[in-house]
Amino acid sequence: MLDLLIPLILIGTSVFALYKKQDVYSCLLEGGKEGLKLLFSIAPALVMLLTAVHMLRDSGAIALLSSFCSPVTSLLGIPSETLPLLLIRPFSGSAALAVGADLITSYGPDSLIGRTAAIMLGSTETTFYTISVYFGAAGIRNTRYAVPAALMADLTGFVVASLCARVF
Amino acid sequence: MMGIVWTCMLILSLFSAILQKKTGILTTACLAGARSAVELCLSLAGALCLWSGLSKLMERAGLTEKLGRLLRPIFRKLFPQSAKDPLTMGYLTSNVSANLLGLGNAATPTGIAAVKRMKQLSGRTEANDEMCRLIIMNTASIQLLPTTVASIRASCGAAAPFDILPSVWLTSLCSLTIGLLAAKLLRRFYA
User: Fold this and answer.
1) Distance, in angstroms, between A61 CA and closest chain B CA?
2) Residue B63 confidence (pLDDT)
3) List of chain A residues whose C-beta atoms are within 8 Å of the C-beta of residue B130
4) Using only C-alpha atoms, what is the Rg of chain A?
5) How far apart are the first and last CA of chain B?
6) For chain B, how are helix, strand and coil distributed in percent, rounded to 5?
7) CB–CB contact B54 A91 (8 Å)
8) What is the ipTM of this complex?
9) What domain range includes position B98?
């Protein structure tokens, strides 16, 4: 079922769009161009951040931080190696992508750490960024309980992601 | 903001390298990091291009709208106040369905429009319960297909890049539920 999911989505969308009399091919090209533009625009951020991440990792700073926090993370069932991802995730999307990609490549995509990082990356969002953009643009001054509730949801996400990686 | 984070990361690694006598590694590390970012971009480019193309097609063919219509009953429960206003409802449904389909670019403007309209209707500058609920629905990242993560996994040689899907769905669902419950509890402490 899961094997056919992506091909079926590609086919299904194209057939539906043809039926809706859309210019399927030029839509695909137009969107593709936007995608590459997006990638091009985040590329410098990824270079800066991955440089910092590599320096942090190779200098042993991440290992030091992870072992320092391991009593807390092990209590929550979160692998301590994913700690940098947890810390950066609510603040910056490209930084989280950089840290997550580094974890997935260095531990392997099918390793426990790699899978945990992938699930975390796929199921969480940049909380502070979202709140500041949505409320900032709309002129909401008092955010009330939005931040604590959203962070509670993030923490749940990290714990459940670690659990899922171990169980499935 | 990110300037402070970046500088702190570098200072932290310098201290750590000196402490653990690994100073020789730092220069190679920063060059290797820069290179790996370009490798990451190249490995993402194909999938991102393909997926953005498909996203555009979904949007143009009206799939976002269709999904929004399917979600309406749930929205009436979650946003009883906003449901009375068709305009807010339209923004809300297109925001959440764009998020579900992974169209981040389309989700942000409609989300902002929804909050703006809610503020206009309430006439106050503090977030009401329904705005907080919308934020939680956005930050819990209810995404049906996390394509970026899957393409990173694919580029690293994962056996089945999308086999994390059930876990991602379950995780998002749990964090959304806990987020909404937390909102219900916390509401009492904020006047």
Assistant:
1) 5
2) 87
3) none
4) 19
5) 30
6) 80, 0, 20
7) no
8) 0.90
9) 60-146+161-191
